[in-house]
Design a protein that fits this description.
This protein is α/β, with parallel strands linked by helices. The chain is built from 9 helices and 12 strands. 44% of the residues are buried. It catalyses: dTDP-beta-L-rhamnose + NADP(+) = dTDP-4-dehydro-beta-L-rhamnose + NADPH + H(+).
C-alpha cells in the first residue's frame, strides 16, 4: 500500500512498483489524520508493506502552522505505525536531513544526535519517535534535497522560472536526491528484505551546495541562464548549513549502491524532457 501516492515521491513509487499488487491512495482517497478511515483501509487490504509518502513538506509555512505540521508528520504517522503493528505490516517511512542542526563537519550517520532547528524538522522527528514507540516493524529512511521530473521542487524551479538572474544560496551543503532512485531503492528493499528494521540514511552519492546544484541542472539542460551565488537567503524557517548524509549503512545492510548525483540528475532530466514533450 502506498499512501500519499499523488505527491512527488508517491508518483515515483507508484511507477516503480507497477509490477506489484499495489493499492495506491492519494490525498483525496485517504486523510492520513483520520483514524477510522486509515484503519478501514488497512483492515480491508491487509498490506504486507505500508509505504508512507504522505507528508507536510512546506518548510517555511510550518513555522506559521506548527500544529498542522505536527499532526501530519507526527501524530498521524504514529497512528499509522500503531495500526501497522495490529495487522503485522512493515511500515516504510521517509524522514529528513532536517532532523539535524547542521553543525557537523562530516556526513551525518543515522546514530548521530538529532537537533532540528525548524518546525518541519521537529515534526518529522516526532514521526520517527512515534514509529519506534509503536513497536511496528519499520524502516525509516532519512532522505535529503528530494527532487523529481514532476511535482514542485528545486530542479523544476531552476528550469522553469522566468527570472533574468537566479540568486541561489551557496552556504548550505547537502545531497540532492532523486525521487526516482528512492523508489528504485525501496523496490530493492521489498524484493530483498533483510528484516533489519531501523533508521537509515539514503541519498545519491555526491554533496554540494544549492548553487552548485543549480549550475549542474543548467549545464545538464544545455541552458545559459544566469545564476549568481548568494550568502544571504532570507526564509521564515532556519535551514541547517550542512546536512550531508552518510548512507554507507545502506550498502552494508541492503547491498545497494546508490547512484552518483550526476547520473541521477541525467536520468531525472531525461524523464523531465519526456514529460514535457
Amino acid at each position: 500500500m502506498i499512501i500519499g501516492a499523488g505527491g512527488m515521491l508517491g508518483i515515483s513509487m507508484v511507477h516503480e512498483l507497477a509490477g506489484f499488487d499495489v493499492v495506491a491512495l492519494e490525498k483525496e482517497d485517504l486523510d492520513i489524520t483520520c483514524y477510522s478511515k486509515v484503519r478501514q483501509q488497512l483492515l480491508k487490504h491487509q498490506p504486507e508493506y505500508i509505504i508512507n509518502c504522505a507528508a507536510y513538506t512546506a518548510v517555511d509555512l510550518a513555522e506559521r502552522e506548527p500544529e498542522k505540521a505536527h499532526k501530519i508528520n507526527g501524530s498521524a504517522v504514529g497512528m499509522l505505525a500503531s495500526l501497522a503493528k495490529q495487522i503485522n505490516a512493515t511500515i516504510i517511512h521517509f524522514s529528513t536531513d532536517y532532523v539535524f542542526d547542521g553543525k557537523a563537519t562530516e556526513p551525518y550517520k543515522p546514530t548521530d544526535p538529532v537537533n532540528p532547528i525548524n518546525v518541519y524538522g521537529q515534526s518529522k522527528l516526532l514521526g520517527e519517535i512515534l514509529i519506534k514507540r509503536s513497536g511496528a516493524k519499520h524502516y525509516i529512511f532519512r532522505i535529503s534535497w528530494l527532487y523529481a521530473p514532476h511535482g514542485k521542487n528545486f530542479f523544476k524551479w531552476v528550469l522553469e522560472n522566468d527570472l533574468e538572474e537566479m540568486k541561489v544560496v551557496d552556504t548550505q551543503t547537502g545531497c540532492p536526491t532523486s525521487a526516482l532512485d528512492v523508489a528504485s531503492f525501496v523496490k530493492h528493499v521489498i524484493e530483498n528484505d533483510p528484516k533489519k528494521h531501523g533508521t537509515y540514511h539514503f541519498s545519491n552519492e555526491g554533496s554540494m551546495t544549492w548553487y552548485a546544484f543549480a549550475k549542474a541542472i543548467i549545464k545538464q539542460a544545455g541552458l545559459n541562464n544566469k545564476i549568481t551565488k548568494t550568502n544571504k537567503f532570507s526564509t521564515l524557517a532556519k535551514r541547517p548549513d550542512y546536512s550531508t548524509l552518510d548512507y554507507s549503512l545502506i550498502k552494508k545492510v541492503f547491498n545497494y549502491e546508490s547512484p552518483k548525483a550526476c547520473t541521477a540528475l541525467s536520468n531525472v532530466f531525461t524523464q523531465y524532457k519526456m514529460l514535457s514533450s
